[in-house]
Amino acid sequence: MLTSLSLLSPIPLPPTDHRSVDGSRSITRRRAVAFPSKKWRCSASPAGQPPPRQRQRRLKKADDDGEIGNIDPVGFLSKLGISDKGFALYLRERYKSLKDLKDEILMRHIDFRDMASGFELLGMHRNVQHRVDYMEWAPGARYCAVVGDFNDWSPTENCAREGHFGHDDYGYWFVILEDKLRDGEEPDELYFQQYNYVDDYDKGDSGVTAEEIFKKANDEYWEPGEDRFIKSRFEIVAKLYEEIFGPNGPQTEEELEDIPDARTRYEMWKKEGKDDRPGNLPAYDVIDDGKEYDIFRVIDDPVSRAKFRAKKPPIAYWLETRKGRKAWMEKYIPAIPHGSKYRVYLNTPSGPLERIPAWATYVNPEVEGNQGYAIHWEPPPEEAYKWKHKNPKAPKSLRIYEAHIGVSGSEPKIASFSEFTEKVLPHVKEAGYNAIQLIGVVEHKDYFTVGYRVTNMFAVSSRYGTPEDFKHLVDEAHGLGLLVFMDIVHSYSAADEMVGLALFDGSNDCYFHTGKRGHHKFWGTRMFKYEDLDVLHYLLSNLNWWVVEYQVDGFNFHSLASMMYTHNGFASFTGDMEEFYNQYVDRAALLYLILANDILHDLHPNIITIAEDATLYPGLCEPTSQGGLGFDYFVNPRASEMWLSVLENGQDSDWSMSKIVNTLVGIGQSSDKMLLYAENHNQSISGGRSLAEILYGRALLQPSAMNDSLLRGCSLHKIIRLITYTIGGRAYLNFMGNEFGHPERVEFPMSSNGFSFSLANRRWDLIEREGVHRDLLCFDKDMMNLEKTERIISRWLPNIHHINDSNMVISYLRGPFLFIFNFHPTNSYEKYNVGVEEAGEYQVILNTDERKYSGQGSIREDQYVRKTMSRRVDGMRNCLEIPLPSRSAQVYKLTRILRV
User: Fold this and answer.
1) Among 311, 262, 312, which residue's Cα sits nearest to residue 287?
2) Membrane-spanning residues where (predicted)?
3) Would you call 800 exposed, middle or buried from its count of C-beta atoms within 10 A (0-12, 13-18, 19+)?
4) Angstrom distance (rounded) from CA 104 to CA 125
5) Helix, strand or coil for residue 525?
6) CB atoms < 10 A from the CB of 78, how many?
7) Cα(263)–Cα(288) distance, rounded to whole angstroms?
């Protein structure tokens, strides 16, 4: 009786969804298979080669997809006005390489989702049976085992099996950690017994034996006669064999005679069974209409057809054989308990070594000078975080608040995820931002590196809390309507061999290039081997992991120049197009970026990707189908470099308005995709000073009165941010604390400062009392509200029509809004003429010189409404006469149109 059901339902249930808004536990999607077969090939065929027919079908599908997308490998060149033939030829060759790479990927993976879902199989995963499966990629190793405090760090207790299922041809090792029976317990009767381990209930564990469940299924599900073929599936074959080859069958070829055609045999069978009593089996007649292409007509019994369609697979009975977590806990002891410390043990040609697994999701990288270890993270249902909020919709413009968790607290220590969630997130929401960008979240060994020398790509930094704490942070941010972006570092990796990926399997750099190409020329980091399919599998899966497991909304790809050029971006760029396709350009890295954007946007349509490339590679934000790299936004880092340079190296009166405008907008990319910032976190990496520290010095720490130094600093602080925010594209970024003029720079504890935390925090107390800092924060809020209330940034692009270097005035229009800036340190203008297109009344909606912003209040309220004059200025039909104090800026809105 066991045979019937087991033959029908040997497939486990589909995996539980990873996302639930109603409070259900979030778990990673993973294939419910007893053993991954995707990486292992049948020994009868060459490794990695699917059957010829299947391979041909996949390649054809890839070609079809390419045709559907209207592919033009050089489509964006005419849009950007690029006529370089060499670059066009390079783009066509790159597209061909991309097609070849996709075909190669589909030879080993079912589809591109599978390519980016390695975390479903690799690393440590609980199996639906009573065991934990561990997979690791170490092609240079000869032996693999999992060691930890759960097995007294024994390299022989939990090792890969001998033979085909322990190590495949690609270098993937498979280790099974069997759960241990408690004393007095007997093994399960069914070798395929499954447990619902992730939920704390015992559905189906009612004490009914498996035999009773199978008998119940066979009695209730099958009608008499329907299960005849299931029980005796070789009956027809045996009878046919006996009839032809048995002792009573034809002995010679003459006795065999000719076999009648199908129609004749059907008529003979029908005639022989005409007197048979009707049975319970469905009645079907197949009629050959004699058509040329062998089209048959099937005539069936309507009653039988209805019964057949109404019948459902007996999954409900199969569910009854699944036991709950409580039953599992009573019978078994976990092979590797939650919170266990572990590493992977590898025997290599260079000798035995222990490594932190590359796919580990929680890691302690440094333990008082000892080797780090991974932590098995499998919390019970009552401790696992339950998602509450949905991801916010992607807005049309981004106001990003960049933050570092560790330095976000007021005290001189490393802050935590929980502290950031409780104290900083409400401030970000109140300040008017709609997204946060977190740096240093991914695990790294040395705190002073700000998180840019990543050691463990799939792990949140244990310094700040647990994975559940980070999920809580992301979920609370979503509840406040904030998107969550991560700074992702795939352009290089830490060179540490004890906790990182360098020399992971001992014998070769499986993840990185060997020789000089595998080392960053200046930073001492390692460079990924992007042309290797297994490295691509790792990196693409890493991107997908953060979206699936932690629900992040986007990525800022850090320092792309380091990966796109073999000189790591440290070369003098002259502006010649050849520099973007010469021998120093790493085509494999560019193909990886194209794949990353294609796969991310296909799997997660609302994802946002940002390119941080100092060289502004052509086509960063152009569609991949048109030869671009496919990013949603690109960073223009030259703006912050320009502000730092003019503040440190020149007099205020020497500033060039033309240079400022050209730096902010004078690029050959799509300006609506540009992200600008006056300053970001770079000061904390390079050891530089913040703009506030340059502008104010120590005066802001103890401001006794508004002196000339403070007035200059406040004025420039406001107009620099306002023009950076409003003259560019649809994205703006501010680093944590700079919105209120944080008087001190960020400096992480290191040997040069005696490992001091004095500058590794933020002075939130400064905005709790009246003064300059609160006033600057008030201005920043009102500046953010320009977009919230008027949608200035998302609806229009700037029309810059007035740049006067002698008067140091800049003016531009965005729809019905006029922006005008006076950078002159001393000259104020009572009636400054500036052109506008529409005649009417314009009213000030933001004035940087107001007293509530620590300004001088030079403009009276009765001067806030100005009427146009019919005079042609700046190529416009009308003009305004505007009072313009020195070092100030105003935003006017057209409130009433006058018809002439």
Assistant:
1) 262
2) none
3) middle
4) 28
5) coil
6) 12
7) 7
- Residues 494/564, Cβ–Cβ less than 8 Å: no
- pLDDT at res. 308: 73
- Radius of gyration for the chain, computed over Cα atoms and rounded to the nearest angstrom: 34
H-state helical runs in 727-802: 772-790, 792-795
Q: 373 forms bridges with which residues in the sheet? A: 364
Angle between helices 708-726 and 772-790 (to 10 degrees): 20
pLDDT digits (tens, 9 = 90+) for 831-871: 999 999 999 999 999 999 999 999 999 998 889 999 999 99
Instruction: Tell me the three state secondary structure of residue 598.
Output: helix
What residue type is 857 in one-letter code? G
In contact, 462 and 415? CB cutoff 8 Å: no
* DSSP letter (8 states) at residue 142: S
Rounded to whole angstroms, the Cα distance separating 552 from 557 reads 14
Tokens of residue 661, six digits: 């405008």
pLDDT in tens, 222-275: 776 666 656 666 776 777 777 777 777 777 777 777 777 766 766 777 777 666
Does the annotation count 693 as an active-site position?
no
What are the φ and ψ backbone dihedral angles of 575, each rounded to 5 degrees? 100, 0
Q: Spot the catalytic one: 366, 419, 612, 747.
A: 612
The amino acid sitting at 553 is D
pLDDT of residue 19: 43
Structure tokens at 219: 């009695």
Q: Return the SS3 of 183.
A: coil
Give 370-388 pLDDT, tens digit per residue.
789 999 999 988 889 999 9
Residue 826: pLDDT over 80: yes
